[in-house]
Amino acid sequence: MKAMAALTGLGAMLSGCINIQAPDKPIVIQLDINIRAEVLYALAEDAANTIDENADIF
Fold it and tell me: PROSITE patterns from the entry (predicted)?
């Protein structure tokens, strides 16, 4: 019985040692994504295919 009381008391003492607090400042995540190059590449490829398919127009 004494061992159980000692373990319970030890557990209560250890549980007070952990503190979790939110940061004072907001967390900022900056994502700089450049998709312009991919879009231009896709448009250039599509334009090249259109010119190849309709060479007589151009």
Answer: PROKAR_LIPOPROTEIN
